[in-house]
Amino acid sequence: MTSAPERPRTPEGTATDTGSGRAEAASAPPPPGTPAICRAPDQLTAPGPTTPGKPRGPGDTDTDGTRAEAAAPPPPPGTPAIPLRTAVCRAPDEFAALGPAWNRLHRSCPPATAFQTHAWLHSWWLSYGVPGRLRLVLVWRGGDLVGAAPLMRVRRPYPVLVPLGGAITDYLDVLVDPGADAAGEVTAALADGVRRAARGAVVDLREVRAGAAAEALYACWRGPRRRLPDAVCLELPGVPMDELIARVGSSRGQRIRSALRKLDAAGVVERDVPAAQAPAAVAAILRLHLLQWRGRGVTPEHERPRFAAHLARAAQAMVASGDAVLTEFALGGEVVAVNLTVLSPGLAGGYLYGARPELRGTRVDLNTLLTRHGVRQAAGGGRATLSLLRGAEPYKSHWRPDHRANQRLLLAAGPAAPLLLVRYALARCRAAAGARPGLRALRDRLRPRGAAR
After folding, report:
1. Is 403 within 8 Å of 230 (Cβ atoms)?
2. What is the largest CA-CA distance in the chain?
3. What predicted TM-score, i.e. pTM, was given to this entire model?
């Protein structure tokens, strides 16, 4: 598959070099009456690919192990604001080099989850990206990266811009530094950059969590847009275990307390795996996971080498940076389960685990074991939410979690408007089919084998 042809430079704006040898044309002026915060910035030029990002503050350590310098003092009152600059990065090597600046932006964005870290997204690109399809929309203020939309161009069968992360990622989003976005100017610049990167394609932002930065981009979008519900994630409050048990009622609560006492009596030992041992721990997760679910409908992607390579790379970097924790559970000196939890300041989420099938016949209740571990990561780390992530498996309902629907945000501009309406109608039809067993079975038979959502 080849990338879309380049759009020639236009007289409406100044074309800017993204550092990969390709030029991006500035967008046309907004229509009269457009609110100020939704107008594009005056200057739309790209910094070079190695432009450094200013550290968040003294003492920060980037994932490459370097110590961040103290942030520059704020400018004196009355100093003109540094203009925003946007770029669309298409070069994978430039994406790799963005790590430190990207992670500083990620740390400054409160709604961001671990799935928006550079480690997760760049590793995903290495396993799932298609050459020529990368579209990273970047907003800079001086040397600071203050906004980013990690996207990829696909054809299904018409051009669509979709977030990096794909179907294996539970929360997808853009990044905006709220400290630089007081008047909404960064969000507006990011929306303008996404519009230019789309070039007639529909923008399909899936699995957007409530409160995500993408919601502000959607609100600021100048053009056709539609919103749909997406997958449901189950969430528990980040409270101690006693408070969590109180939610489920006395009868179920007694069974949970009994299971906790059995865990203690069995002598289950937890060990957090260091980053250097993360690849081996991920391999153990996948091996145990496939054994555990054999014959019971294992997710096909979990069996593929590209998923294993992505998860090993991402987990190692995220454990090193504190954005994930890998935990082994041992019984009698032997590892019987391994779990990967993703972490952000406001959320802990159990992403994937594997356990020996023989545990079903022992006194160890795996559901209680993993939930207790998740509670320690959430409540113990001051995180407001323990997410069970996507899927409404029956064992999750034991804890009476809250159901939180993600959103699907569809955006278009100019000639892509009819395609947006088509995509919106198809999505609604699929959702209706999924709600009816007969139609759901027909949909599954017609879906290509291995097709991602």
Report:
1. no
2. 75
3. 0.79
